[in-house]
Amino acid sequence: MPTFNYRTAPTSFKLAATSFLLLAVLGLGVAGLQVYARAGLTTHSTLAHFRGDEETLQYPMSFALMVEIAHAHAFTQPMLALLLSVALLVSNAREWLKRAGVIALFVGMTMDLGVPWLVRYGPAWTVHLLPLTAVLITSGLFVSVAVPLYEMWWESEAAEGTTARPKEWQRAGKGGWERRIG
Length: 182
Prior knowledge:
Elements lengths: L10 H29 L3 H9 L11 H27 L5 H27 L7 H25 L15 E3 L5 E3 L3
Antiparallel strand pairs: 1-2
């Protein structure tokens, strides 16, 4: 049974996969923008967002609102992490990079579901876990998107002689290819 290879996949598959990967980047980028718009990027503004602040007359986030937000994310984030992981796992990346990408995605998204609860109801220092959460999700996203896109659309010298080109096709001078027989 032939193995899957992004380089030799049909263009229709490449277009669908590329569209999904780029929309995932856009979606998580908008989510990051929403976090910035609502909570800001400082420790004080983030704590005020979750716990309230008398100086700015901000109310703490209610338990019901926390549940509402967690409910929506508890369904979508695991699916997104799974789809991005699969996109990376079927690539030709090294095993250590695949493992790191999968771990970063799932740990980051798990933290994204749990850390807000810690910030709201736990010790104040837990607010410092939010940047770590963002780094894990962003790095997992970058690897899971960059590797498949590179393999789909940009060929490398390492691809020569692989299933992307039959072995009988060889480089013929300045970027050309010719079929060598014999």
